[in-house]
Amino acid sequence: MKYPEAKVKFIETWGNLGSQWGVNKSIAQIQALLLIAPAPLSTDEIMEELKISRGNVNMSIRQLLDWGIIYKKAIAGDRKEYFIAEKNVWKWSVKIGNVRKQRELNPVVDLLKEIASEKDLGKSPEEVEFSKQIKDLNAFTQQISKLADKLFISQQGELLMKMLKMFS
Amino acid sequence: MKYPEAKVKFIETWGNLGSQWGVNKSIAQIQALLLIAPAPLSTDEIMEELKISRGNVNMSIRQLLDWGIIYKKAIAGDRKEYFIAEKNVWKWSVKIGNVRKQRELNPVVDLLKEIASEKDLGKSPEEVEFSKQIKDLNAFTQQISKLADKLFISQQGELLMKMLKMFS
DNA sequence: ATAAACTTTCAATAAATATTGAAAGTTCGA
DNA sequence: TCGAACTTTCAATATTTATTGAAAGTTTAT
């Protein structure tokens, strides 16, 4: 597979992966494009390369900036804004992980915690089973949540490395 | 929070979580409903409870059966099909994890592997950077993939437990 | 063999989500 | 202060994804 084909396939595949995991395709593709770019890219260059509109690029870029996985990069003598990707895989993964955990997992964790601590639940079969399942889920999500936080704190994936060695 | 409210909130929240992670809301809600049900439910009961159509329930149920996270359960003297959820949190998590890893992550892992092993890449800045990033990503995804497989093989989350203890 | 009970299918429709593009807003050099 | 260069906004539109519901298919008891 030659470079132009490989590049297109990579960007496409990355976009698809995003879609399947709830990340807008344009956003995922822009990250992919910036990841493999050897130099900062402007909005116009991104529009041109991915064949998407200015509005789309602008909004997607803002999202990626919010997540902290791309940066603005000024180029001397040019009024345009340029962008570069965070290239350290571990760093941007952790950032995405953190954002998604906070926005999407935490509400579930919070609800489970609240229900699990509820004393008001009665003794009907429905309520007994409900209570039991919520408690299980609560225990489970707490564990996952704790482990995720620890993983996210460790830098460069050292914790992941340790785990892999430990359990190989 | 009383049972009826807690139940509705749980099902809603679970549906939302699904949506955000690429799982159809109806599918997620049916799993939630079956998880907390003390007895098997029929298609009609699910339709009634979640206010969704027969077609939707049928297709969603099939998906959940495919994933292996719910089961059919015959009830003596009744021609209807009834369904129960796999109630062991770890078991169904692993099953979902496996299915999604295979269907969604593996294609990416495969593409990265293929590109990373490509000898055809030239020496232009574009191709050098591309090559470098793909290699990084490839190494990273391989590690994640291996760890996931190990996690998925261990039963009842014993590996997760060990990890938590080890790094707390 | 029939018909009632039940399940599956899938074209049509609805709902959710993403994208566009042009107008409004901003910045900055002359 | 003007206007060109650039960025942002957002209503309109397009696309994707989910849902419906009625017809077709299947199973089972008699």
Task: Please describe what this structure looks like.
2 copies of one chain form a homodimer. The first copy, chain A, has 168 residues and is mostly helical. Chain A contains 7 helices and 3 strands. Chain A has helices at residues 3-20, 25-36, 43-50, 54-67, 89-116, 125-153, 158-166, and strands at 41-42, 70-74, 81-85. In chain A, strands 1-3-2 form a 3-stranded antiparallel sheet. In chain A, a hairpin with a 6-residue loop joins strand 2 and strand 3 (81-85). In chain A, helix 1 (3-20) packs antiparallel against helix 2 (25-36), helix 2 (25-36) crosses helix 4 and helix 5 (89-116) runs antiparallel to helix 6 (125-153). Chain A is elongated, with a radius of gyration of 21 Å. Chain A starts with a helix and ends with a helix. The model of chain A has no long low-confidence stretch (mean pLDDT 94). Chains A and B meet through helix 1, helix 5, helix 6 and helix 7 of A and helix 1, helix 5, helix 6 and helix 7 of B. The structure holds a DNA duplex (30 and 30 nucleotides).
